[in-house]
Amino acid sequence: MSPSPNAPTPVAIPEPTLKRLPYYYKFIQGQREARRDFVSCTTLAEALGLNPIQVRKDLQATGAVGRPKVGYHVETTLDAIEECLGYHNTQDIFLVGAGHLGQALLAYPGFAEIGFNLVAAFDADPAKVGREVAGKPILEASRLSDLVRRMHIQIAILAVPAAAAQMVTDTLVRAGIRAIWNFTPTRLAVPREVLVQDENLLASLSVLSKQLENSRVKSHKESIHGKPEEL
Amino acid sequence: MSPSPNAPTPVAIPEPTLKRLPYYYKFIQGQREARRDFVSCTTLAEALGLNPIQVRKDLQATGAVGRPKVGYHVETTLDAIEECLGYHNTQDIFLVGAGHLGQALLAYPGFAEIGFNLVAAFDADPAKVGREVAGKPILEASRLSDLVRRMHIQIAILAVPAAAAQMVTDTLVRAGIRAIWNFTPTRLAVPREVLVQDENLLASLSVLSKQLENSRVKSHKESIHGKPEEL
DNA sequence: CTGCTTTCGGTAAAGTTTTATCGATATGGA
DNA sequence: TCCATATCGATAAAACTTTACCGAAAGCAG
Ligand SMILES: NC(=O)c1ccc[n+]([C@@H]2O[C@H](COP(=O)([O-])OP(=O)(O)OC[C@H]3O[C@@H](n4cnc5c(N)ncnc54)[C@H](O)[C@@H]3O)[C@@H](O)[C@H]2O)c1
Ligand SMILES: NC(=O)c1ccc[n+]([C@@H]2O[C@H](COP(=O)([O-])OP(=O)(O)OC[C@H]3O[C@@H](n4cnc5c(N)ncnc54)[C@H](O)[C@@H]3O)[C@@H](O)[C@H]2O)c1
């Protein structure tokens, strides 16, 4: 309750903001390559199809400061975002379940670019164990617990069949995992101190489909009630 | 502005709710298999680690009605969720970009279960064209536009390299696509009437990593300021 | 140098989503 | 039969996110 003595306001950054930061980062990188030194919220917003005020608030949250009439300094703003998202501090992570999805993730070079080192995968299928994908070994699932512990792995990617999800989670938790990136369509039961980020792809697709249905109804209504606003 | 004459309250269901519905669905299916006829918000919330009041509001949004002291009828509630998420009305969809991620999606049987029929993939790589993945053909990218139009495809999955994302999007839009499920880390420019659902995996991982960092700071603070609340 | 315009930062308002409160209803046991 | 209790539905409060507003700073044109 009492404010910390000298804490530099470590106000948690809202999740929607965190999800937008990578877009700003990518665009500002492009500006750097184009040899531009400054970029304004207006420009960013225009390019990304967002509200300029929202962009400004998001950048403020990273600690970046802008100059009126000029915008934000490209280099320092990139640094601020990197700092904010922790692109610097490299982190080793594991993947559990080297099936279709797991192997796609293994092969993906994008993680390394933002400071994650996907070290190894684990699988229960003997036919997969021993193979490599993109230079990453697929190890025996039975070794998971021990290696999480010994290598002090904090984050694991979960890409096993739904039926195995909770069991693997329990193993990870017992081994001391701190966060799980969950691609299974299961709600995982974990202790309060363990974080879970759900990536429920089916749910996302359902949302899209539902919104499509809504928009159909809406535009139909509009066309009936006569509201052909097209600008 | 004026209320529609006889519309059955087509209030748009909030996205967070839509994303939770599949979890309820899956759990209630389990209850059906266990021969239970009713399920309460309390039970659901307990099992899924959610707030019971939230569960109740979510179910209300689907149109399901419950009985005090008893809960929600399993069969009718499943129907309500199916109806709400459109699990019934089957829909053909296309995938563009049959690379690592695209092929994992092609092989995934989950889409069919919720009413989506992933008909075909399209790729620019001649080495991939002509092959099949899980019985789904990989077709020449040049045929995309024509087939979207002729088959009246409304939803496309975008899994091409970021560099090609906008170009493919433009093609899809010109061909009359209505919604794009976007796995590239790019913000797509589309006309207002086209929906885009972004699935920015790197952004999600960044969020998780940041939250982990926050929780570390917090628990450290707590341990200093003495706040070992453990219940 | 002066005024015009763009853009920032802070604060306030509006909109959404989550959580709380409370009366009503139905069930099961006294 | 009647009471205690679990649970629902509705309404309200709280928390969070997005959007708006306004004064100040800084570049630019004349
Ligand atoms: N493939 C997709 O596109 C896709 C899309 C959305 C969601 N998902 C979800 O992702 C998960 C994985 O999907 P997939 O298509 O890769 O499935 P998959 O069957 O191809 O792969 C699962 C892998 O996990 C391994 N495995 C099983 N039990 C294990 C255990 N106890 N420990 C370690 N490894 C174990 C299997 O051997 C297999 O290699 C599923 O939960 C699925 O619902 C996948
Ligand atoms: N693989 C992953 O796990 C992963 C994770 C997160 C994000 N993503 C994103 O998903 C996208 C695809 O990733 P990937 O790993 O599958 O890449 P990939 O390179 O394996 O596959 C891309 C495919 O797209 C095809 N392609 C290229 N240009 C095309 C065009 N104009 N029309 C049709 N097809 C075209 C290529 O031939 C290739 O088969 C990328 O944008 C990536 O950033 C992938």
Spell out the blueprint of helices and strands:
2 copies of one chain form a homodimer.
Chain A: H1 15-33, E1 38-39, H2 41-48, H3 52-62, E2 66-67, E3 71-73, H4 74-85, E4 91-96, H5 100-107, H6 110-113, E5 116-123, E6 132-133, E7 136-140, H7 144-150, E8 155-158, H8 162-174, E9 179-182, E10 195-198, H9 201-225
Parallel strand pairs in A: 4-5, 4-8, 5-7, 8-9, 9-10
Antiparallel strand pairs in A: 1-3, 2-3, 6-7
Helix pairs in contact in A: 1-3, 1-4, 2-3
Bound molecules: nicotinamide-adenine-dinucleotide (2 copies).
One nicotinamide-adenine-dinucleotide sits between chains A (96-102, 122-125, 128, 141, 159-162, 164, 168, 183-185, 201) and B (104-105, 107-108, 110).
The structure holds a DNA duplex (30 and 30 nucleotides).
Notes on the protein architecture:
Chain A is built from nine helices and ten strands. Chain A folds into two domains: 71 residues, Orthogonal Bundle (Arc Repressor Mutant, subunit A), CATH 1.10.10; 112 residues, NAD(P)-binding Rossmann-like Domain (Rossmann fold, 3-Layer(aba) Sandwich). Chain A is α/β, with parallel strands linked by helices. Chains A and B meet through helix 1, helix 5 and helix 9 of A and helix 1, helix 5 and helix 9 of B. Chain A binds a DNA duplex (30 and 30 nucleotides) through helix 3 and strand 2.
What is the residue-averaged pLDDT of chain A?
92
Q: Which strands sit side by side, in order, in the main sheet of chain A?
A: 6-7-5-4-8-9-10
The quaternary structure here is homodimer
Shape of chain A: globular
Number of H- or I-type helical stretches of chain A: 9
CATH class of the largest domain in chain A: Alpha Beta
State the CATH architecture of the largest domain in chain A.
Answer: 3-Layer(aba) Sandwich
> Biggest interface, and residues per chain?
A-B, 65 and 63 residues
Spatial gap, N to C terminus of chain A:
50 Å
Order of helices and strands of chain A: HEHHEEHEHHEEEHEHEEH
Q: How many DSSP E strands of chain A?
A: 10
CA gyration radius of chain A, whole angstroms = 22 Å
What percent of residues of chain A adopt helix (DSSP H or I)? 40-55%
Low-confidence stretches of chain A: 1-9, 226-231
Query: What is the CATH superfamily classification of the largest domain in chain A?
Result: NAD(P)-binding Rossmann-like Domain
Give a quick account of the main beta sheet of chain A: strands, pairing sense, barrel closure: 7 strands, mixed
Report the CATH topology name of the largest domain in chain A. Rossmann fold
Number of domains of chain A: 2
Structural class by helix and strand composition of chain A: alpha/beta
Q: How much of the residues of chain A is beta strand, in percent?
A: 15-25%
